[in-house]
Write a structure and sequence with these properties.
The chain has helices at residues 40-59, 62-78, 80-91, 95-118, 151-164, 179-191, 205-214, 227-237, 262-274, 291-306, 326-341, 378-381, 397-404, 420-429, 462-468, and strands spanning 2-3, 6-8, 11-13, 20-25, 30-36, 122-126, 130-138, 141-145, 168-172, 198-200, 220-224, 243-247, 252-256, 284-290, 345-348, 352-353, 364-365, 368-371, 388-394, 412-416, 434-437, 456-457, 470-478. The chain is α/β, with parallel strands linked by helices. It folds into two domains: 2-248 and 453-478, 3-Layer(aba) Sandwich (Aldehyde Dehydrogenase, Chain A, domain 1); 252-437, 3-Layer(aba) Sandwich (Aldehyde Dehydrogenase, Chain A, domain 2). The strands form six sheets. The chain has a seven-stranded mixed β-sheet with strand order 15-18-19-14-13-20-21, sandwiched between helices. The longest helix is centred in the first third of the chain and has 24 residues, at 95-118. The chain starts with a strand and ends with a strand. Bound molecules: NADPH dihydro-nicotinamide-adenine-dinucleotide phosphate (NDP). NADPH dihydro-nicotinamide-adenine-dinucleotide phosphate is lined by residues 145-149, 154, 172, 174-176, 204-206, 209-210, 213, 224-226, 229, 232-233, 247-250, 281, 383, 385, 411, 451, 455-456.
Length: 479
């Protein structure tokens, strides 16, 4: 059985404890590899190697940093097929989707490679009196903790800017999906990243993650994951005055006005509901439709979603793969019971799916559409993070906004209308960090990414990420 190892000081090693954790293939429900069950001792070793590497890395020219990060991007592209296969087996997502995500992971490294070259200080001139210059200096050793839904993509989204800004990194992927993070270690060595600049420590959140968050010499934490974990991390890191970036849960509304381009809204809604089994923080899990087209949209949506084939992630025809873990599968199914108890009417799906043959013990759930729920019930306000959406009608813009804004979350939203004035009005009033008008998941890596309310603190993307991973120092010189 394949054993994943920690990537420390440019080499691979097991946890100091020599204990391993089983890693499951969601498509079959079977153990297929093992990962180190690391703890605070492993974080300490990783930290020592990162601290040793830091002085040289922070003084490495931006051009050399560019070259190495760009090389990592090239190697990810070159190994697209094998990385995508590893991601699909580890996470349960369809292979075709994993291939796209590997392309986007390479883009993250390429984007922040160029950011290393472009990042600059500002200067503020006080005419005849003084001149200020603002340094943005690397922080030191920083921690990056990522979730299981887009494993390499979200891992690279943090690591690339942290390295580009001149920091050394200790990174922890989700224990549920460690494989592509492990393979990234090999790629980094091949690309010439000096030993210790990036260290990847595998294991459980409460052990490895906690050790990183509470370590006084790890100066900043960039975290993506659930809101309750984010709260816990903030409770430890905030009193230590660490820099914190928290990208947390979502319960995103998808508002569809009667004047939308119906076909585009429909096709994109199918995607935004069920891509990656609905396990994307940006998925629109609450579909809110203007009453005059409600029945037509609902019927068309059910018909479209019926066509989505759920099945073996490795088969090209599968549109929806397996749910990432037994625990998450149980959680998603429990929400189907909650929805029914809350009076929800299941229009489609609403149950687990049993596959044939070797997939027989895999974790599959039929794409589910539920209506007839109050907009403020649990099903409509709590994050399910699976192939489950609700659909509800609205009559006025105000009502749509009230429904959209009624959760604790505020990550992303989608608005479908051909009336630009209405679109601007809704975009201004909706409580989310990201608003898509007549599209979904269209990402420009320069734009700020993150949520409001309980969806997070801080922003990633573009200069926001480079600024997060640097300390600002203003120097004022009297003339
Ligand atoms: P979790 O919060 O369970 O875990 C995220 C990461 O934190 C994992 O690596 C986990 O390790 C680790 N962790 C767990 N406990 C601790 C701890 N006490 N201290 C430090 N680290 C810890 O989230 P999931 O992996 O379940 O991911 C799904 C969540 O991520 C959803 O809520 C989703 O909305 C959110 N998400 C948000 C995004 C955004 O940009 N806002 C993007 C993508 C997902 P381990 O796996 O070992 O538990």
């Amino acid at each position: 059985m394949q054993q994943i190892l920690n990537y420390i000081n440019g080499g691979f090693e097991p946890a100091k404890s020599r204990f391993f954790i089983d890693n499951f293939n969601p498509a079959t429900g079977k153990i297929y590899s093992q990962l180190p069950d690391s703890d605070a001792d492993d974080v300490e070793v990783a930290l020592e190697s990162a601290e040793k590497a830091y002085d040289a890395w922070r003084l490495t020219s931006s051009e050399d940093r560019f070259k190495i990060l760009n090389k990592i991007a090239e190697l990810i592209d070159l190994k697209n097929e094998s990385l995508a296969l590893a991601e699909s087996i580890d996470q349960g997502k369809p292979l075709w989707l994993a291939k796209n995500e590997m392309i986007r992971s390479a883009q993250n490294f390429r984007f922040f490679a160029t950011a290393a070259m472009q990042f600059a200080s500002e200067s503020h001139n006080m005419e005849g009196v003084a001149i200020n210059y603002t340094l943005r200096q690397s922080i030191g050793v920083v921690g990056c903790i990522s979730p299981w839904n887009l494993p390499l993509y979200l891992f690279s989204w943090k690591i690339a800017p942290a390295l580009a800004a001149g920091n050394c990194v200790i990174a922890k992927p989700s224990e549920i999906t460690p494989m592509t993070a492990y393979l990234l270690g090999e790629i980094c060595t091949e690309a010439g990243l000096p030993p210790g600049v990036l260290n990847i420590v595998h294991g459980l959140g409460p052990k490895v993650g906690n050790a990183m968050v509470s370590h006084p010499r790890i100066k900043a934490i960039s975290f993506t994951g659930g809101t309750s974990t984010g709260k816990h991390i903030a409770s430890i890191a905030a009193p230590m005055f660490k820099k914190l970036s928290l990208e947390l849960g979502g319960k995103n509304p998808n508002i569809i006005f009667a004047d939308c381009d119906f076909e585009k809204a429909l096709k994109t809604t199918v995607q935004s509901s069920f891509l990656n089994q609905g396990e994307i923080c940006l998925c629109g899990s609450r579909i809110i439709v203007e009453r005059s087209i409600y029945d037509k949209f609902k019927t068309a949506l059910v018909e479209e979603v019926k066509q989505l084939k759920v099945g073996n992630p490795l088969e090209n025809s599968s549109r929806v793969g397996a749910i990432v873990s037994q625990m998450h599968y149980d959680k998603v199914l429990s929400y189907l019971d909650i929805a029914k108890a809350e009076g929800g009417q299941i229009l489609l799906g609403g149950h687990a799916l049993k596959m044939e043959g070797e997939l027989n013990e895999g974790w599959y759930i039929a794409p589910t559409i539920i209506e007839n729920l109050a907009f403020d019930c649990r099903t409509n306000t709590e994050e399910i993070f699976g192939p489950v959406v609700t659909i509800s009608p609205f009559d006025t813009v105000e009502e749509a906004l009230q429904m959209a804004n009624c959760t604790e979350y505020g990550l992303a939203s989608t608005v479908w209308t051909q009336d630009l004035t209405k679109a601007h009005n809704v975009a201004a009033k909706i409580q989310s960090g990201i608003v898509w008008i007549n599209c979904w998941l269209l990402r420009d890596l320069r734009t700020p990414f993150g949520g409001v309310k309980q969806s997070g603190v801080g922003r990633e993307g573009g200069w926001e990420a480079m600024r997060f991973f640097t300390e600002t120092k203003n120097v004022c010189i009297k003339l």
